[in-house]
């Protein structure tokens, strides 16, 4: 039976389908519960939350499902946990975006004490909560963290965009590798080389990662129906992680403007851009991306650019301005049909079954 894989056995799932986690507040408890209760793995991205926020999310999920779920974090890359920038760098980062602040009538913000929560506090909280699964991107957790996961029975899932990254994760003792192809929505989660040099597509990446590691491999990027899932399984993956199709469902925390874009003809054109966060990520193309093109050298790096553009988001949404906000999307968006997570999950299982039969 195609649903019986190393991943479904290890994580006690009914089908090898993982709802990918979303950072920046786009994950939702409703979505995690719908997917985990359907027999897949629901995941919540807690990268934007501090310890108290992560505790509240885990409690809400546990109150509504006994089934397997994942909490997801970003491993600090370079000085991203506490970026050091000069007053001059801060000023020029603000100046670049000044026309947007002025146009949307948002005052230029004062420099915050920090640009996001402390990773050490986040990871300690995750360990304390012992979720069934801890997944992460942008690197490898410390040996101490991975040891504590192993002792606590927390399964670990690490993302790789190249076979070298996969090998590093597996050698460190990570339980499963999420092989993330260039088609995927959101950030390119490379950590050994610049993401621009790690643009392998999902179907080429899966067998390379399968050959490089002994642990189970999960495919991510570009899948939105049974054909994609079947192709990934045939290529050697033990499960499929799907992001964009679940992000488009009403249970996610995506805004109605973003969701409408995912179902529109505009989603046929997605682009990898550093414009919104300072890190390379895939979004539906819009005017902001064009305006920042060629300015990559003067854009603030992550997380400063992410923090600055986030200050514009509510005013842009209130004004219905899809031309200035991030519209994260994978290349599979034109295949989307489902608006409810349980229906999408049922379709994915039935369609994979049909193709594999
Ligand atoms: C809006 C958005 C945010 C994401 N945030 C995260 C994240 O915080 N952590 C993570 O591991 N993956 C993140 N991802 C990747 C997804 O979990 C998943 O691997 C990816 O979307 C799969 O490709 P697809 O979009 O083509 O289905 C994000 C994806 C999107 C679209």
Question: What features would you describe in this structure?
Answer:
This protein has 357 residues and is α/β, with parallel strands linked by helices. It is built from 14 helices and eleven strands. The chain has helices at 6-11, 29-38, 51-64, 87-103, 119-129, 143-152, 163-171, 202-212, 226-234, 244-247, 256-262, 287-292, 304-318, 341-356, and strands at residues 17-19, 42-45, 69-74, 133-137, 155-160, 176-180, 186-187, 217-220, 239-242, 270-273, 281-284. Helix 2 (29-38) packs parallel to helix 3. The longest helix is centred in the N-terminal third of the chain and has 17 residues, at 87-103. The radius of gyration is 19 Å and the shape is globular. 54% of the residues are buried. The model has no long low-confidence stretch (mean pLDDT 98). Bound molecules: flavin mononucleotide. The site of flavin mononucleotide has 28 residues, from strand 4, strand 9 and helix 10.
List the ions, cofactors and other small molecules found in this model: flavin mononucleotide
Low-confidence stretches: none
The amount of beta strand, in percent, is 5-15%
SSE succession: HEHEHEHHEHEHEEHEHEHHEEHHH
- What is the arithmetic mean of pLDDT? 98
CA-CA gap between termini: 10 Å
Helical coverage, percent range = 40-55%
Secondary-structure class: alpha/beta
Radius of gyration: 19 Å
Number of discrete helical segments: 14
E-strand count = 11
Outline: globular
How can the largest sheet be summarized? 8 strands, parallel
Strand order of the largest sheet: 1-9-8-6-5-4-3-2
């Amino acid at each position: 039976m195609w649903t019986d894989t190393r991943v479904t056995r290890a994580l006690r799932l009914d089908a090898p389908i993982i709802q990918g986690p979303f950072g920046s507040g786009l994950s939702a408890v409703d979505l995690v519960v719908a997917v985990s209760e359907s027999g897949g793995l629901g995941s919540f991205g807690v990268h934007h939350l501090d310890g108290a926020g992560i505790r509240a999310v885990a409690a809400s999920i546990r109150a509504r499902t006994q089934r397997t779920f994942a909490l997801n974090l970003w491993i600090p890359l370079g000085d991203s946990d506490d970026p050091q920038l000069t007053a001059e760098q801060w000023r020029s980062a603000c100046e670049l975006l000044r026309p947007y602040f002025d146009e949307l009538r948002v005052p230029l913000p004062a420099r915050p004490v920090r640009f996001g929560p402390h990773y050490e506090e986040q990871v300690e909280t995750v360990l304390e909560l012992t979720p069934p699964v801890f997944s992460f991107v942008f690197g490898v957790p410390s040996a101490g963290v991975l040891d504590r996961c192993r002792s606590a029975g927390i399964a670990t899932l690490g993302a790789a965009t190249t076979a070298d990254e996969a090998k590093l994760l597996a050698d460190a003792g990570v339980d499963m590798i999420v092989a993330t192809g260039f088609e995927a929505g959101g950030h390119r989660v490379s950590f050994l080389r610049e993401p621009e040099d790690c643009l392998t597509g999902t179907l080429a990446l899966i067998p390379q990662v399968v050959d490089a590691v002994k642990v189970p491999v999960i495919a991510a990027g570009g899948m939105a129906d049974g054909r994609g899932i079947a192709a990934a399984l045939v290529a050697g993956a033990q499960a499929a992680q799907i992001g964009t199709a679940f992000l488009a469902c009403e249970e996610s925390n995506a805004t109605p403007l973003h969701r409408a874009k995912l179902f529109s003809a505009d989603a046929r054109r997605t682009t990898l851009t550093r414009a919104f966060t300072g890190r390379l990520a895939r979004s539906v193309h819009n005017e902001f991306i064009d305006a920042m093109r060629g300015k990559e050298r003067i854009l603030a790096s992550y997380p400063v650019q992410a923090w600055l553009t986030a200050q514009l988001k509510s005013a842009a949404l209130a004004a219905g301005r899809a031309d200035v906000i991030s519209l994260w999307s994978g290349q599979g968006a034109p295949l989307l049909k489902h608006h409810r997570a349980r229906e999408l999950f049922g379709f994915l299982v039935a369609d994979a079954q049909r193709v594999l039969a």
